[in-house]
Structure formats: structure tokens, C-alpha cells
Amino acid sequence: MVQQVTKGIKISVETTFEGTFYKDYKIQYAFGYKVSIENQGKNTVQLSARHWIIKDALNHTTIVSGPGVIGQKPILKPGESHTYSSGCLLTAPFGAMSGHYDMVDFATTSYFKVNIPTFKLSAPFAIN
User: Fold this and answer.
1) What is the C-alpha R_g of the chain?
2) Looking at the whole model, is its pTM more than 0.90?
3) Which of 40, 42, 64, 96 is the most buried (most CB within 10 A)?
């Protein structure tokens, strides 16, 4: 698990290898990840958007941006958390993801970025 706190928002990420399959005659490596977003600050905040950079060992990079996470824009009061699961496909058995969430502080109506710590994706059979 990797964790990082930015401006009172703690991000924790756990990853899993889900398996391999063929798509368009190419092998794909499926990974899952579970993200927990915890408001350790003093103000209520809302996640408004996500921005991901996904890289694999073959130097393929995918950028994913959009509103919310899995169709939700969670509001977190102080002490509350939101956990969700998602996944990605890579063309190599190794890779990494990083990015940030756009958040709004309800008390100040200001937007701020919360860093998502870089986390590794690796198929267990491919490690040494």
C-alpha cells in the first residue's frame, strides 16, 4: 500500500493483479486498484475530477481525465472517507500510475489539487 497526504487529504492505494487475456490478438495485463480518500482536514471538501497518468514497461503512456471517480463526486466532511475500486489494462506485465484529484473546499470555495502517490503495477509471475 502507498499513502500520501496533501492539504489534509490522505490518499491510500492498494493494487492487485487480475490476470491476462487477449484483446485484438494482443496480450493484456489486467490490474485492479482500491483507493481510499480520507479527509483529515477541518473543512468539508468534494472531489470534482480525476487525472491519471498510466505508464507501462514498454513506455506506453495513457492519460485519463474526467469528472469524479467511477461516476461519483464524493463529499467528505472532516474525518470521513470514501473508498472505490477500479482497474486498468497494460500491454506489459509492469507499470505504474500516478495523478491527482481536483477538490473544492466548501468553506473557502477554492479548488486545490490532491496528489495521488505513484503506485506500481506488477504481475507476480513476471517478478524474477
Assistant:
1) 16
2) yes
3) 96
Q: Which residues of the chain have pLDDT under 70?
A: 127-128
Q: Which helix (H) or strand (E) holds 13?
A: strand 9-23
- Domain boundaries, given as residue ranges, for the chain: 2-115
Residue 13: closest CA among 70, 97, 104, 122: 97
CATH annotation of 2-115: 2.60.40.1470
Burial letters for 48-87: b for 16+ Cβ neighbours within 10 Å, e otherwise?
A: ebbebbbbbbeeeeeeeeeebbeeeebebeeeeebeeeee
Handedness of CA 60, 22, 14, 113 (dihedral sign): positive
Q: What is the pLDDT of residues 47-65, one digit of tens each?
A: 999 999 999 999 899 999 9
